[in-house]
Amino acid sequence: MLKSYRFSFEYESFATDMPQMTHIRRGIRFKAAYINGWIFLAKNLHFCTDPLLFEVARYKKFKKFLIFMAELKAIATQIRRDIVRMVHGANSGHPGGSLGCADFFTALYFRIMKHDPAFNMDAPNEDVFILSNGHISPVFYATLARSGYFDLKELSTFRKINSRLQGHPATHEHLPGIRIATGSLGQGMSVAIGAAISKKLNNDQSTVFSLHGDGELNEGQVWEAIMFAAHHKVDNLISTVDWNGQQIDGPTDRVMSLGNIRQKFDAFGWATLEMNGNDMDDVVASLEKAKSMTGQGKPVGIMMHTEMGKGVDFMEGSHEWHGIAPNDEQLAKALAQLPETLGDY
């Protein structure tokens, strides 16, 4: 069971390893004793001992709750649980890449991005996220629901007839949080660049984030877009590559070797980082570092090392779970490894 502290944030935050600190702000006094990690100057202090009572971060006019790493990890675990239940319920879908990217999505939507689940398609003064590898829609939908874009119960309609939660995200269904129909691989980078340039033209200082699969980089359009972004100094763009080494037909090195992806981005004129996409601390630190690198004349690329199927031992590291659903027995085994931290839909 998750035991953690949660503060409503309206002031600057900082990290500390100090054994004891007392903070006073507008008459609110509290002592943080022997807490390694994030301590916040806050107006209101909330203590949460039961994960089922923990209400995940809601972004209302960007007055957001910031949360501890332990809670981010708990959200990621629940999202992984949502993923396997959704794919099993539909008897189709893509669990492998979705599980591998759960930490990234959690960090992005619950810690890094400035966004509002009231959802304005134009996203004025908001950060924007573009999912290029749209087949990992289960992790995207679960994250959107858990962060307040639509009712959690709608996750049970994944891939069903007349559902807004199609196998690949589509704008036709008007699902809050979806800004582009994705599924035809290779197109998301171009769209993200267009959104980033639009923000520059509108004097909007927000950031555009995008995610791409490593197998997706077999598409030539991606490299045209990468070259374009560097040439035009699209420096409000942060694009992440899920470098898990797997694609639908097998290991990427066997299907079509990509070599060193980071060196390729470097050669095309991007500023680059690498991170462990299955280590929440590294994900948060790297995304924050990437944000600090924007506005310096270069687009930012993050090479994110993940393991396909992360969190479910019999799915980990195998391309076979790219696009198949677990049966009843496999679902039970998966859920036994993914504790219910926030409550199932």
CATH topology tier name of the largest domain: Rossmann fold
Low-confidence stretches: 1-65
Strand content: 15-25%
Quantity of strands, as a count: 12
CATH class of the largest domain: Alpha Beta
Label the overall shape: globular
Count of DSSP H/I helices: 10
Mind explaining what this structure looks like?
With 345 residues, the chain is of the alpha/beta class. It has 2 domains: 4-67, no CATH class; 72-321, Rossmann fold (3-Layer(aba) Sandwich), CATH 3.40.50. It has helices spanning 69-90, 95-100, 102-112, 137-146, 188-201, 220-231, 252-256, 261-267, 280-292, 328-337, and strands at residues 4-16, 20-25, 28-33, 37-48, 65-67, 128-131, 208-213, 237-243, 246-247, 250-251, 271-276, 300-305. The protein has a 5-stranded parallel β-sheet, with helices on both faces. A 3-stranded antiparallel β-sheet has the order 4-1-5. A hairpin with a 2-residue loop joins strand 9 and strand 10. Residues 1-65 have low confidence and may be disordered.
Short description:
The protein has 345 residues and is of the alpha/beta class.
Task: Give the SSE map.
Elements: E1 4-16, E2 20-25, E3 28-33, E4 37-48, E5 65-67, H1 69-90, H2 95-100, H3 102-112, E6 128-131, H4 137-146, H5 188-201, E7 208-213, H6 220-231, E8 237-243, E9 246-247, E10 250-251, H7 252-256, H8 261-267, E11 271-276, H9 280-292, E12 300-305, H10 328-337
Parallel strand pairs: 6-7, 7-8, 8-12, 11-12
Antiparallel strand pairs: 1-4, 1-5, 2-3, 9-10
